[in-house]
Amino acid sequence: MGNINIEESFKFNNNDVIVVGCSSGPDSMALIDMLLKIRNKYNLSLVVAHVNHNLRKESLEEEEYLKDYCDVHDLMFEAMTINEYGDDNFHNEARNIRYNFFEEVVLKYNANYLMTAHHGDDLIETILMRISRGSNLNGYSGFKKIVHMDGYDIVRPLLNYTKLQLEEYDLENGVKYYVDSSNEKDKYTRNRYRKYILPFLKEEDPNIHSKFLKFSHVISDADHFIEKERNKALDEVLEGDSIHIKKFKNIDPFLQKEVLYYLMSEFYQDDLILINDKHIELLLNLIYSNRANTFINLPNEVVARKSYDMVELKRITDEITSYEIEFNGYVELPNNKVIEQIEDTSLNSNNICRLNSSEVTLPLIVRTRKFGDKIMVKGLNGSKKVKDIFIDKKVKLDDRDVWPVVVDSKGVVVWLPGLKKSKYDKKKTESYDIILRCS
Hints:
The protein is an alpha+beta fold and about 450 residues long. It has 3 domains: about 5-210, Rossmann fold, CATH 3.40.50.620; about 240-315, Uridine Diphospho-n-acetylenolpyruvylglucosamine Reductase, domain 3 (2-Layer Sandwich); about 325-439, Phenylalanyl-trna Synthetase, Chain B, domain 3 (Phenylalanyl-tRNA Synthetase, Chain B, domain 3), CATH 3.50.40. About 40% of the residues lie in helices and about 20% in strands. It has helices at about 25-40, 60-70, 90-110, 120-135, 135-140, 165-175, 190-205, 210-235, 245-250, 255-270, 275-290, 385-390, 395-400; strands at about 15-20, 45-50, 75-80, 115, 145-150, 155, 240, 240-245, 295-300, 300-305, 310-315, 325, 330, 340, 350-355, 365, 375, 385, 405, 415, 420, 435-439. Strand 20 and strand 21 form a beta hairpin. Helix 1 crosses helix 6. The termini are far apart.
């Protein structure tokens, strides 16, 4: 049973560059061993990326073991340590930190793929947890085997297998691994599903993971179809960042919920775990209320306010949370940042942007974020959501609402001051006639 053929799960190509997210546990160590066995066949370049969560005394030992393992097997090794946590939901925050780090490693090595060792049991747990707390179709599908990112793919090649199969693989192939003692603690929701629910399901059907994988595919395909319809509905009901109530009531009730889930995901971003079906029902009750002016409070100091025919989500703050200013050489913003055009500078940080006026449509506009904002990131083959950049850079939720976004007159994002440059930014050796500085 431990004889797993990873080539049956994923089509490898010659000279692939693969970053492997590795915890030193049985699953990820099995994945690395499988990749080592086919490395020469495909001339793979393998990079091991490890996050030390710094919560157990064994963490340092595990990191040192991985480092030595990579030295012995001629693997590149990248590691980071999480020194502090600020989120109430540890698993949610740790996941965000891990994937932000993994993406940095992917970009550093210009990798094709980020591979993780998620298996069939992980998928079952995720689907059951989503069903229990309430979600939409995308959430109910769990996670996908392949996720297309900007410039690379996240691949989970072990989804067809169980944890037991991976442990048997390790035993048969002499693969050393470490066991995370925190996986036994009942205080974590996922652990309770793993310890009490999965054994029952596997007793009913040893191949239950295959049934859940099929379920995930069916739900994901349905979600892909519905996403197209939802996007049409969004175009119909949104005016700026607000919902037009009369138009909203004209769309199918199922799409109404999908629209609200989408808006919440855009608004809450990495804090979406705070939102469930109850909040969607509260929003629907607000929209269908006979009262012309009313509001409801949502988690993390967010308010949904109804004013006649419109509903808008806003964060409760004493500061101005929305602006759009035509740039004429100097602007002072509500968060005390200043953006100005300067004659020259030797600096080249994210606080400096050089543009060629022939490549953008003037005048430039400085505004706050809008739903769906994307930026063509410099050096990246593709675009990235502005909300994801805020997450990557750990910008606080309140700060995101007033952070400047510089766009041209066609709405193309050309610069996120202090955070990211777009493909329109010029090197000092290239041709440009506009220099912007944020301070």
